[in-house]
Amino acid sequence: MILTKKIKVMIVDDSALVRRVLSRELEKNPSIEIIGMAPDPYVARDMIAKNKPEVMLLDIEMPRMDGITFLRKMMQSLPIPTIIVSSLAQQGSTLALEAMRCGAVDVVTKPCEAYSIEEVIPLLIEKIKSAVLVNVQKIQQQATAGNASAFAKITSFTATTNRILVIGSSTGGTVALERILPTLPKNCPGTLIVQHIPAGFSRTFSERLNTICDVTVKEAKNGDSVVNGQVLIAPGNYHMWLKRDGGRYEVKIGTGDPLHYQRPCVEHLFNSTAEQAGKSAVGIILTGMGSDGAAGLLNMKNAGARTIAQDEASSVVWGMPGSAVKLGAAEFILPLDKVIPKALELLR
């Protein structure tokens, strides 16, 4: 989609330095206009009503009202696509995870010693361009819905050998995964997930999922075996590949250049699954910005794997699954609550 007008962005952060730096660097891009900057949520509330921003950049730690409380209130009254820009993202804070659950479309680490301004700004620009396309009504629904209340738990599964389930997701994916993974049976095939996520955040997210699922969920480490009843999530800022070693599967974790502005990226997981597992795999592409994973899902399909894309109606943003559908990569296009039952049916 070609953007024909500037995206109106508001920055809410108590640091005058951060506001100034972000504003200066972002406005170098011709697609972005900073229409307001606020030092706290109370000032931001009045500015939002007056200026009507299309995307909000929001810090978590602020005086008078924290960012999460403010986000929760805004989701109820005036939902705006919101990107959390916080040092807590680097720390993997549970607060950053809670922000995603409350309706944030993404989380980006503030410029710091580990993440230079030169690294953060290009990523933030891409996320702003994608955030403006997000279905805010879907975000609002997810922010108020129970994690798995509408999804039936699958309590039995016929054991399989050397079957692999791989999932790719981005914007809206953390909430989607919290809703579908608790439905997996204890003996489900080994499952690998790439969710676009900041460094450090993936461990907190994995630990959270492990408390609500019957399967074991953990942040992947290099050389981890892929076994039934276990879900491995790619660590933030690291790619993950599937590797076959004789009769067993394991994961390879490593760095390398971002792909589709993402590390981890879904393409690496899907392409390696096509090569290493072929028809023994099922691939799922869920809600997310951009097109990461679409070509990889097509490679999986061409290698004999079965493939599923989340439908547009249940997606927060139909970028990744929509791109897969356009390529002809998705054998099935399903609402979120039908994705896991169909995957397990195919894996049998």
Short description, anyone?
The chain has 348 residues and is of the alpha/beta class. The protein is globular, with a radius of gyration of 20 Å.
Explain this structure:
- This protein is an alpha/beta fold and 348 residues long.
- Helix content is 37%, strand content 21%.
- The chain has 13 helices and 14 strands.
- A 7-stranded parallel β-sheet has the order 8-9-7-6-12-13-14, with helices on both faces. A 5-stranded parallel β-sheet has the order 2-1-3-4-5, with helices on both faces.
- A hairpin with a 2-residue loop joins β10 (239-245) and β11 (248-254).
- α10 (266-276) packs parallel to α11 (294-302) and α11 packs across α12.
- The protein is globular.
Structural class, from helix and strand content? Answer: alpha/beta
Q: Strand order, main sheet: write it out.
A: 8-9-7-6-12-13-14
Shape: globular
Any idea what the radius of gyration is?
20 Å
C-alpha end-to-end distance: 39 Å
Model regions low in confidence, pLDDT < 50 over at least 5 residues: none
Please provide the ordered H/E string of secondary-structure elements: EHEHEHEHHEHHEHEHEEEEHEHEHEH
> What is the arithmetic mean of pLDDT?
90
Q: Tell me the number of helical segments per DSSP (H or I, 4 or more residues long).
A: 13
Q: Give the beta-strand count.
A: 14
Strand content: 15-25%
Report on the biggest sheet. 7 strands, parallel
